[in-house]
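Hi everyone,

Forwarding the result from last night's run.
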Amino acid sequence: MHMAIVIVSSVIVVAYTWIGYPLTLWILRMQKSREVHRAAALPSFTILIAAYNEECHIQDKLENCLALDYPADKIEVIVVSDGCTDNTDRIVEHLAGDDSRIRLLRTGGRAGKSKAQNLGVKEARGELLFMTDAGSRLDRNTLRLLAADLADPKAGLVSATLELVDSEDAISKGQGLYWRYELFIRQAESDLGVLATGSGVALAMKKSLFRPLDPMYGEDCILPLDVRLAGYRVLHNSRARAYDAMPHSAEGELRARIRMTARNWTGTLSRKEILNPLRYPGTALGLISHKLLRWLTPLFLMILFFATVYGATIGNREYQALFGAQVLFYVLAYVGWLRFRTRGSGGLLGFPFSFCLANIGFLGGLLMVLRSEQIIAYDNPEAPAPAAPIEGAERL
């Protein structure tokens, strides 16, 4: 009897987290969604890019920012060099010499992304902040769409929709499906007024609401929480778009998932008051269902697996069938991994493989939190190797 309760409870939690909660959002959104009052006001923007050894991307990124469909006199671009050791600083200085809207700041050493962003915000002149990564690209109308959302006095922060590109391998395809699932949840929570997360690749907010970031927390987690705690809405804009690539290796995706999970765990738990359903009912339910239970999924999957192993050994047919279904799923995931290693694509088996990979990442992030490990600065080992500078070339 006790084993049945454990198994049923685990199944219910996993099913609710991955199916029940999104379904609930879909039903609620059909019945009612909160209107966002948009206006045509165009306040000034500070585009903030924290960069570490981005010589392969920084020139294209700055050209992309300066080509946005927004009044030129209402844009400034601040690049904060976080101890760059390549040609990033030289490229930014050269472009700044041709366009006064570009400014280069330096942290003076490897300080980490959050400290670099704090420095950039301190020097920002814009009414609105737009935080973005050097490797991403933006549609021309992105700033106008985000500014229109932030014209609502009740809105404090809004994220653009991140589109994943170059998704030809099993990792990117599987995680691309996962990301579309994630975007559906974010848009539904935004429409219902309970969203409390954002995308650091393309995140805009009112400068007056910014609070200095602790180095161990990510801006995509902590800034939306602070905005909600201040009484303002967090929005997701499906029409404003940014583009970026995902890691193309299992190792790269796993590292990214572990890092994001660990930083989001610590960030969310640092704002425990927002998890109180009596004070923040919708937002608390959303964070628990959307984030915390998802990050705990690998624990429930392990409980379910070992409980059914025990049930199968005592001859219970229902437990044996459930155990067999789990083994089949994990075998398919393993075959998907093998196909990816040998062929570069897992086909349909890439999806169970990616699901398992994501949950291994969730477990790794949780273990980092339990060991009190902190991530302040990190590199991207999958970034393209810098091209050798060409003497006399037009592009630096």
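The chain is about 50% helix and 15% strand.

Cheers,
N.
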